[in-house]
Write a structure and sequence with these properties.
By secondary structure, the protein is mainly β. Helices cover 0% and strands 51% of the residues. Strands 2, 4, 5, 6, 9, 10 and 11 form a seven-stranded mixed beta sheet that branches. A four-stranded antiparallel beta sheet has the order 1-3-8-7, with no helix packed on it. It starts with a strand and ends with a strand.
Length: 123
C-alpha cells in the first residue's frame, strides 16, 4: 500500500509558476514509476508527465512540454511537478500516481492515486 499526498496547488495568474509536490508514505517509491495527471469536472483524467523509478526516462504531454518539469527526490520520497508559464487551460485538479514497474502514461496503468490538488490559472 502506498499513500500519496499532493500539495502546492493554488490560484496563480497566467504566466506564473507553481510547484506541486507528491509525498509518499508507508513505502519507499524509489522503485516505482510516477506520474502526474489532471482532470476537470465532467472530463477525462489526462496524462501530464511521468518519470521512471531511476529518473532516467521522462515523458510529457505535448500540451505541457517545455513548460512543466517532473522530478523526484528519493531521499524525501517525493515527486515534484514544476509548472512555468501557466495558462488558463492548465486549470484542473492535479493528481499524483504511482505504479510498480516501468514508466506509463495511461490512467489504467497506475496502481495508486493521491486525492489531488487544485490549480487555478486566472487570465
Amino acid at each position: 500500500q502506498v499513500q500519496l499526498v499532493e500539495s502546492g496547488g493554488g490560484l496563480v495568474q497566467a504566466g506564473g509558476s507553481l510547484r506541486l509536490s507528491c509525498a509518499a508514505s508507508y513505502r519507499t517509491i524509489s522503485n516505482y514509476a510516477m506520474g502526474w495527471f489532471r482532470q476537470n469536472p465532467g472530463k477525462e483524467r489526462d496524462f501530464v508527465a511521468a518519470i521512471s523509478g531511476t529518473g532516467s526516462t521522462i515523458y510529457y504531454a505535448d500540451s505541457v512540454k517545455g513548460r512543466f518539469t517532473i522530478s523526484r527526490d528519493h531521499v524525501r520520497n517525493t515527486v515534484y511537478l514544476q509548472m512555468n508559464s501557466l495558462k488558463p487551460e492548465d486549470t484542473a485538479v492535479y493528481y499524483c500516481a504511482a505504479r510498480v514497474g516501468s514508466i506509463a502514461t495511461t490512467v489504467g496503468a497506475m496502481d495508486w492515486w493521491g486525492k489531488g490538488t487544485l490549480v487555478t490559472v486566472s487570465s
